[in-house]
Specification:
The complex is a heterodimer. By secondary structure, chain A is of the alpha/beta class. Chain A contains 5 helices and 12 strands. The relative contact order of chain A is 0.17. The chains are: A alpha/beta, B alpha/beta. β4 of chain A pairs antiparallel with β6 of chain B.
Chain lengths: 261, 441
């Protein structure tokens, strides 16, 4: 049976042993969950760069592009190795299923993006087509008419809106086929009539919220989401990290989950 | 644009800008290289090259950068230097035989974007256009191209993801009605049965079709141009240096700016007083954070400074042949030796093997790769098959997408006699040996 406290402590100890950053954060190897402090992005002043935060630079095969190409609260680029890519893909599959995507029907997706979210949208697309589905991209900076026109042209089964500037209400299609992107750095859209995917720059996909539900489902054996009693903000731990650990790292907002609303 | 061929002591020839500002730019390049790049500083110091000296002399005597240098020194050094900053990257092998993470800072991305914009403009892209790219994956590459296109005033831009069901995945293109279409020749060949009849003969909305990543068969190029009623343009570049050159309307070689990406031709042979042919090495004068000097890209090319009838005075490049044996699959270049090395890691010395590529019916995928091996390796068939499917990064991607299948064939050693063996045979429609394709990308 999965014991979250055991997993959290193991992750913190591993991060302490294997990364200079967490060596600085903890000073000594945590012996109990109570010794694992909640951290935020400001703690990364201790790191000279990503190499202070990774387990093995040779294993890096990619990065997590930020939501906004030219801006992120995180001070440097976030790397990924193959094992973490596989784990992230498992989260993507779980999320798509939670949103009701029928894997047997080979659905087609259209990812709608804009100038600033293009590289982020590419990552969304890749997660979809790794499951064998078509995921095309269109870049729109125009009007609701442009959005409707483009969606009609591609005639996809699902439309993923990566930006709140693309108005979901302009689309005349079933709400469950319009997937919203929520990001921890953005103001929440909070329209529970639409399905949504939740992201953070530091971890990419966190979880999903099916239409009509108020909380996010997430893969609990990969990501532990807790509330810091001091700030009442949600903190995430990557329990199975192999490249870039996050241990009780602040997401900057309160994320409603099944355990904590 | 003013440039000249410079002959070096080792008989190589470089094409360099000759204006005072070009020489100043080279001087600043070497000063920065010496100041900020540990490996290149060591190279310069060991070779007695001072950034204070004449940049033409420094460049003339500068040693070549090997792929081992790139893979084992420059890339790790780039990661260390850029650790505290922001960059984008891709993970591929390119010419380096082994996958490496290639980094690009915002400044270097913009330098590449500037070249890409020129290529697109030369290929007829203009404000108000609708631009579509199509590929089986790698959307981040095309998102970059969409950005370059939007800088030229393109109004609508999309990336169309193709999968095995080409008919279904291409279906929106009729409604999109692109003015400019960018894709890979092999994907165009596969999707051609569906694409060629979307519009009346000779009257598609496509004004310019740009191809990259692979050479295009001249016969197919003509057929595409006539059927779609468009011009076809080549876009040449390399994994390590980015996009470099593009065709004009006349298709007589890809124009490029040697003050941005500088060619050096080794084993140079002058075809005439303005044209040289040989093994291509590139210097990325335009890159600030991950430059290379005299890096061998694996192509034999012809470079001419002879004026082009199109009126543009920039030199032109044409690919003559690859310097190593290999094949291109969905835009990804794979070396014969990469396959040999991967199989050797599992089965010991595999000796010689032969690779044959064939088209598969659309219902079965995209390409069949048959590998002929000595009979003594037959007991290890399963392991060898797993290597092809899972251990070669680029092939694994295509296998996962359902775009390549593998077949192993075990035969007598005589069939793999080194004196007679053709290591790579390409039976794919329009993808076999090409008679003097004017440009490769």
């Amino acid at each position: 049976m999965f014991n979250v406290e055991v997993a959290l402590l193991a992750a913190a100890r591993k991060a302490f042993r294997l990364t200079r950053f967490y060596g600085d954060v903890y000073k000594s190897e945590p012996a109990a969950v109570s010794e694992i402090r909640h951290i935020s992005v400001s703690d990364y002043y201790r790191a000279a760069g990503l190499l202070d935060c990774v387990v093995d630079r040779e294993a890096m095969i990619g990065i997590l592009p930020p939501y906004l190409r030219d801006a992120s609260r995180f001070p440097f680029t976030i790397p990924e190795d193959e094992a973490e890519l596989v784990l992230r893909q498992q989260r993507i599959v779980r999320a798509l299923k939670d949103l009701g995507v029928d894997f047997a029907a080979s659905p087609r997706f259209l990812i709608v993006t804009d100038e600033r979210r293009g590289t982020f949208a590419c990552e969304v697309a890749k997660g979809i087509y790794w499951e064998g589905f078509q995921a095309s991209l269109t870049c729109l900076n125009g009007t609701d008419d442009d959005l409707r026109h483009e969606v009609a042209i591609h005639d996809s089964d699902y439309v993923v809106l990566t930006s709140s500037r693309h108005r979901r209400l302009a689309l005349d299609r079933p709400k469950h086929t319009v997937i919203l992107t929520e990001h921890c750095s953005d103001r929440s859209i909070d329209d529970h009539d639409y399905p949504a995917l939740l992201y953070a720059d530091e971890v990419d996909l966190i979880g999903s919220r099916a239409a009509g539900r108020s909380w996010y489902d997430h893969e609990g054996e990969q990501l532990l989401i807790e509330v810091d009693p001091a700030t009442q903000l949600s903190h995430v731990t990557k329990l199975q990290f192999t490249c870039f650990p996050l241990i009780r790292y602040s997401l900057g907002q309160r994320v409603p989950t099944a355990e904590v609303s | 644009m003013k440039f000249d061929f410079h002959r070096h002591e080792d008989a190589s020839v470089s094409l360099l800008g000759t204006r005072t500002c070009d020489v100043d730019r080279m001087r600043r390049f070497f000063a920065r290289l010496h100041r900020e790049f540990g490996h290149y500083r060591a190279v310069m110091d060991c070779s007695g090259l001072s950034p204070e000296s004449s940049p033409l002399e420094v460049f003339s005597r500068f040693p070549y950068t090997s792929r081992e240098d790139y893979r084992d020194i420059l890339q790790p050094e780039a990661l260390s230097r850029l650790s505290a900053g922001r960059f984008v990257c891709d993970y591929s092998s390119g010419s380096t035989d082994r996958c490496v993470l290639r980094l690009a800072t915002p400044a270097d991305e913009l330098a590449e974007q500037a070249i890409t914009e020129r290529v697109f403009r030369r290929a007829g892209m203009r404000a108000g256009d609708t631009f579509v790219c199509a590929d089986v994956g790698f959307p981040e590459i095309y998102e970059f191209y969409l950005r370059a296109a939007r800088a030229l005033g393109v109004r609508r831009s999309s990336y169309l993801h193709l999968n095995r069901d080409y008919a279904r995945s291409l279906e929106p293109i009729r409604r999109i009605a692109p003015d400019v279409f960018l894709t890979l020749p092999s994907l165009l060949v596969r999707s051609w049965p569906h694409l060629r009849s979307v519009w009346p003969y000779g009257r598609s909305p496509i004004r310019s079709l740009i191809y990259m990543g692979e050479p295009m068969h001249p016969g197919f190029r003509r057929e595409v141009a006539e059927t779609l009623g468009c011009r076809v343009y080549s876009f040449y570049g390399t994994t390590e240096t980015g996009g470099m050159a593009g065709d004009c309307d006349l298709g007589n070689g890809c124009h490029f700016d040697p003050t941005m990406i500088g060619p050096t031709i080794a084993q140079a042979e002058f075809v005439d007083d303005q044209t040289v042919q040989g093994d291509l090495y590139l210097t990325t004068w335009h890159l600030r954070d991950h430059p290379v000097v005299k890096y061998r890209v694996g192509d034999v090319v012809r470079i001419t400074t002879r004026p082009c009838p199109c009126g543009e005075d920039s030199p032109r490049l044409s690919v003559v042949e690859r310097t190593h044996e290999g094949f291109v699959l969905a835009g990804m270049k794979l070396r014969y030796q990469t396959v040999v090395d991967a199989l050797t890691r599992v089965a010991g010395d595999v000796g010689l093997l032969a690779i044959t590529l064939s088209d598969l019916p659309e219902s079965e995928g995209h390409t069949l790769i048959r590998v002929d091996l000595p009979a003594r390796l037959a007991p290890r068939e399963r392991e060898l098959m797993d290597v092809l499917k899972y251990e070669i990064f680029e092939l694994n991607d295509l296998y996962q997408f359902g775009l390549v299948r593998f077949q192993l064939s075990f035969g007598a050693d005589e069939a793999l006699d080194q004196r007679k063996l053709r290591r790579v045979t390409d039976h794919r429609l329009y993808m076999g040996e090409l008679p003097g394709d004017p440009g490769e990308s």
